[in-house]
Design goal:
The complex is a heterodimer of chains A (490) and B (468).
Chain A (H helix, E strand, L loop, with lengths): L1 E8 L5 H12 L4 E8 L2 H9 L12 E8 L7 H14 L15 H7 L5 E5 L3 H13 L4 E3 L6 H14 L3 E2 L5 E4 L2 E4 L9 E5 L2 H13 L4 E6 L12 H12 L5 E6 L4 H12 L5 E5 L7 H11 L9 E2 L9 E6 L2 H15 L3 E2 L13 H6 L4 E4 L3 H4 L10 H12 L3 E9 L8 H11 L4 E6 L8 H10 L3 E3 L2 H11 L5
Parallel strand pairs in A: 4-5, 5-6, 9-10, 9-11, 11-12, 14-16, 14-17, 15-16, 17-18, 18-19
Antiparallel strand pairs in A: 1-3, 2-3, 7-8, 13-19
Helix pairs in contact in A: 1-3, 5-6, 7-10, 11-17, 14-15, 15-16
Chain B lengths: L6 E5 L2 H8 L5 E4 L9 H8 L4 H14 L3 E7 H5 L5 E4 L11 H13 L9 H7 L4 E4 L18 E6 L6 E5 L15 H29 L2 E2 H8 L11 H16 L5 H12 L6 H13 L10 E7 L2 E6 L7 E4 L4 E4 L12 E2 L3 H4 L21 H11 L3 E10 L5 E7 L1 H7 L5 E6 L7 E7 L5 H16 L1
Parallel strand pairs in B: 1-2, 4-5
Antiparallel strand pairs in B: 3-6, 3-8, 6-7, 9-10, 9-13, 10-11, 12-17, 14-15, 16-17
Helix pairs in contact in B: 2-15, 3-11, 5-7, 7-9, 8-9, 9-10, 14-15
The chains are: A alpha/beta (490), B alpha+beta (468).
Chain lengths: 490, 468
């Protein structure tokens, strides 16, 4: 082993830097050990303890470079080690102060933001949604929760907190909202106007938005409250806050409440609350014996003194040979509405979101398609979206099942919905058209969208009609047409 | 009202943010990741606890509201009622059989200092039998101790007081670096220094502090911390400016004490030559502030992080005195002389109380001079302090970081945020030798064992559920 000790009088670096330099040099192949240090008494002791002899006269203002090479170290190792000392001493970090990393929680984002008007949009998995949503409420901000599969008790806890603080929780499972003209989630692009919507249903809200848009009536705000808000457990906590806000907005002339029929006691409370508001509230409650969404829209138009237009249809199909209606939906409310309408003419419809006990299909889609009965499947249901994206984003699952239904000789008509808007798949018709074109049975589609949507309703409708589908704007009209095609017309 | 949001913060699917941005509304995207495994249900329970928000606001306000003053220096026997044979140590409770090398070494040296044994080596039998000695955590006695944190009756202690409540905390006097008791060394030079501190430095500091309190009022330790954080100290591994400011405040009274001039000069030389002298004031100041935040039902704020060389433990405001412990980790950093990772003992000391209060590693951005100590760069230091804001409840308006536009230090570690982000508190630390008697072998960065945070969260959730 050879040992080399040199001093560099007047050279200085702080002790921490020198520790780092020492470590760098120790890493040079062939170096047994090395120490670069100012020759302070403490360091002299350390160096001597390591077996290095220092030249006489070394003082605290001298830098000592002490290197011991391994036996048999290659020629030139010392030179490399000394070069490493110089390089390490000269090294400087190349970059300046770093960019700030993105916040890791909604709470951290809100703390950095100074915007009191910020809204938080949560779309993490349902089991994690409460944490992010609670961050918003803790910082006194409204929150929209797109996530589904949020446990019911967590929804209750969030809404109880929001109520205490005068905040609005839109959702969970809120797919669509328009807040002051800004579309969130799967909202359609519409112009602001005199109607305010409170929606316990995302696609129901979208159907209303698009029908009103076609009739030339704008919507200023559409506040989603989540599908369970009007249950006996949640008791309309968000609905009340949404109604309160729309009532306070002078631009809103008429409020429309879109929902499945609420639990009885909640319905009574809600009607009482609405009666106390200054703005009239029209209830569009989708249920047995209730008007469908298109009929409700027509009522709204009449209350506003507007004309009711003819709802557009493009393409026309003829009846096929099969006898079963197969509905494949991405919109839960659209599926509900179709079942309500179809069951009046065809009798009970089997579904994964059945209207009545005993009609359930379970989550096994293959079994669902094998059933010798009229079926309607909601691919957006929680059970089918756990661990995967919503079918309005990822159409794969529905496309697979659509192809199977199209090949099944028993299928008499296929009914599908295509829901456009911000956040939805960029060109759903492109993927659907080949399946539609190859389908043996007739395909009736409802395209829920506006011409201002990123996907452009006209382009989507044209593509589907060209592939052979009959395309409606009204889901109710599409359903009635499908029923007619399997001979259910009366 | 239903006015349009002026900005949208998206957590989750990026496309929703894109759709909002396309409508000319500013969007901030959160870099969300799943929480620590198995914490989802407990997180929901704790975050939905109606007590939590206010409890945490109170805990943070309590932490930030304390102004710590140095009011006295006195013997541990008088202050804490310690009797010969009673030993305090750093970290959560531990017994001799599980104690690490440096803690054993410090206990052995402490036994010799107290005259229980002549030769420190003889103390091993004393501690193994356990009949005439007892071990107790500093934290259980209003005290904190750096590294091994061993306190014996004849050691002099700083006394810090919260003038608003009269509450007090204590810490021993710092011995310097290298071969010192707190790093587990117990050789003759260690005991000689401790005896000099007992016989000369301690009495002189007591006289000087008492005289200063009388003439100028208590020394404002929190105020010195405020200043030193703007002078390149993070108050854990760098205390240079703080030490000199303390000397500035005490030197006149030391000179006027009437003590032998040579003793005064030696004491000033000792304090001025020990860049860590102020650490033993920073630590009890942090404990004094954090103790004010203890025992608030529903609060998820960490009020102590401490290590005994074997276990790393935390205490949380909402779970009383319970310790949540896991194995202490090895620091990553630089080594003195020819020491290497094999020579280092796992993390030890109560000094992580500084990080718990929002300084030390949490204020790394303000101490660029020592970033290389931990093998880092200046951008790493800025990123570290910013990252700690992810897991803390708020900022300390008193302790600000100039290079981050005077942003307050990240304060009040939130168990729930640690579990949500998986970001662990960053601690700057010294490294003790694994073998008793070795002393310091290096310094670096370390984090707590991750599992103690889910454990604390589960306890918080249990209490929430029990409250109904």
């Amino acid at each position: 082993m050879s040992t080399h000790v040199t001093t560099r009088p007047g050279a200085y670096a702080d002790s921490v830097r020198l520790l780092q330099v020492s470590r760098t040099v120790q890493g040079v192949p062939g170096v047994a050990t090395a120490q670069v240090a100012m020759a302070t008494p403490l360091n002299v002791e350390v160096l001597e303890g390591m077996g290095f002899a220092l030249p006489d006269g070394s003082g605290p203002n001298d830098m000592v470079v002490a290197i011991r090479l391994e036996d048999g170290a290659a020629d030139g190792t010392l030179g490399e080690a000394l070069a490493a000392v110089d390089e390490a001493l000269a090294a400087r970090a190349e970059s300046g102060p770093s960019e700030e990393a993105a916040p890791r929680t909604a709470g951290a984002a809100l703390r950095r933001s100074t915007d009191a008007g910020a809204l938080v949009l949560v779309s993490v998995p349902g089991a994690n949604a409460l944490a992010e949503a609670m961050d918003a409420l803790d910082a006194d901000h409204d929150v929209m929760i797109f996530s589904d599969n949020v446990p019911l008790d967590q929804e209750v806890a969030l809404k109880r907190t929001a109520t205490e603080r005068g905040l609005l929780v839109m959702g969970p499972d809120c797919g669509t909202a328009v807040v002051g003209g800004v579309g969130l989630g799967f909202a359609n692009a519409t112009t602001p106007g005199p109607v305010g919507i409170v929606a316990a249903s995302g696609t129901g809200c979208q159907q209303l938005l698009c029908l009103l848009d076609h009739a030339g009536v704008g919507v200023g705000s559409a506040l989603g409250v989540g599908g369970r808000d009007l249950s006996a457990t949640v008791r309309g906590a968000s609905t009340r806050e949404a109604l309160r806000r729309l009532d306070a907005d002078p631009a809103v002339e008429l409020v429309v409440m879109v929902s499945k029929p609420p639990a009885d006691e909640v319905a009574a409370e809600l009607r009482e609350y609405a009666a106390g508001l200054g703005t009239p509230v029209e209830f569009a409650l989708l249920g047995p014996g209730q008007p469908d969404l298109t009929a409700a829209t027509e009522t709204v138009l009449r209350r506003l003194g507007r004309d009711v237009p003819r709802w557009p249809v493009q393409g026309e199909v003829a009846a096929g040979e099969g006898h079963l209606l197969r509905g494949l939906f991405v919109g839960g409310t659209l599926c509900d509405e179709s079942m309500l309408i179809a069951s009046e003419a065809l009798g009970p419809i089997r579904s994964n979101i059945p209207l009545a006990d005993g009609l359930g299909l379970g989550a096994d889609l293959d079994a669902a398609l094998a059933v010798d009965a009229h079926t309607m499947v909601d691919f957006g249901d929680d059970a089918l979206t756990a661990g995967r994206a919503h079918p309005m984003i990822d159409p794969t699952l529905r496309l697979e099942q659509l192809a199977r239904a199209a090949d099944d000789p028993r299928t008499g008509v296929i009914l599908i919905d295509v829901v456009l808007g911000h956040g939805a798949e960029q060109d759903p018709a492109a993927a659907l058209a080949p399946v539609v074109a190859g389908a043996r049975p007739p395909v009736v589609a409802c395209v829920v969208g506006t011409v201002a949507d990123p996907q452009d309703r006209r382009r989507q409708v044209a593509a589907l009609a060209e592939a052979g589908a009959e395309v409606h704007l009204s889901n109710a009209a599409a359903t009635r047409r499908a029923v007619e095609l399997v001979g259910g017309s009366r | 009202m239903t006015t349009a949001p002026t900005s949208v913060i998206t957590v989750g699917a990026a496309m929703f943010g894109d759709a909002v941005a396309a409508q000319a509304v500013p969007v901030t995207s959160v870099d969300w990741r799943p929480p620590m495994p198995g914490t989802e249900a407990d997180l929901a329970t704790v975050l939905a606890d109606p007590l939590r928000r206010d409890a945490n606001a109170r805990a943070l306000a309590a932490l930030l509201g304390v102004q710590a003053s140095l009011v006295d220096v006195a013997l541990a026997s008088e202050l804490l009622g310690l009797e010969p044979g009673q030993f305090l140590h750093a970290g959560p409770p531990i017994t001799w059989d599980r104690a690490s090398g440096p803690l054993r070494g410090a206990l052995m040296g402490g036994a010799a200092l107290e005259g229980l044994v002549e030769d420190p080596e003889d103390a091993v039998a004393l501690f193994e039998s356990g009949t005439s000695v007892s071990l107790d955590p500093c934290h259980h006695h209003g005290t904190v101790g750096p590294m091994a944190g061993v306190v014996t009756p004849s050691m002099w202690m700083f006394v810090l007081e919260d003038p608003a409540t009269g509450r007090r905390t204590h810490c021993s006097l710092n011995e310097g670096l290298g071969k010192v008791l707190r790093y587990g060394a117990y050789g003759p030079e260690v005991l000689t220094r401790l005896r000099w501190m007992r016989d000369v430095l301690g009495p002189l500091l007591q006289t000087a502090v008492r005289a200063t309190v009388t003439s100028a009022g208590p020394v404002d330790v929190t105020g010195i911390l405020t200043q030193m954080l703007q002078m390149g100290d993070e108050a854990h591994n760098r205390n240079r400016a703080g030490t000199l400011m303390l000397m500035r405040d005490l030197a006149p009274a030391m000179v006027e004490s009437g003590a032998d001039a040579a003793d005064v000069a030696e004491s000033l030389r000792f304090v001025g030559g020990n860049d860590h002298f102020f650490l033993n004031l920073a630590m009890p100041a942090c404990k004094l502030a954090l103790d004010a935040a203890r025992d608030i039902d529903g609060s998820t704020m960490v009020v102590a992080m401490a290590r005994n060389g074997t276990d790393f433990g935390i205490q949380v405001s909402g779970t009383g005195d319970e310790w949540f412990t896991g194995p202490a980790q090895l620091a990553d950093g630089l080594f003195l002389g020819s020491y290497g990772p094999d020579d280092a003992n796992p993390d030890i000391g109560d000094s992580a109380i500084t990080e718990t209060a929002g300084i030390g590693g949490f204020a790394m951005a303000t101490a660029p001079a020592i970033v290389r100590l931990v093998g880092g760069t200046v951008p790493d230091a800025l990123a570290t302090t910013r990252r700690m804001h992810e897991i803390t409840l708020g900022e300390n308006p008193r302790w600000s970081v100039p290079v981050l536009e005077f942003q307050g230090t990240p304060s009040g570690i939130d168990v729930s945020r640690v579990c949500r982000t998986g970001i662990l508190p960053q601690i700057n630390t010294g490294m003790a030798g694994r073998q008793a008697g070795v002393g310091q072998v290096g310094a670096g960065l370390v984090t707590p064992p991750a599992e103690i945070f889910p454990a604390a969260l589960a306890a918080l959730a249990g209490r929430t559920r029990a409250r109904g």
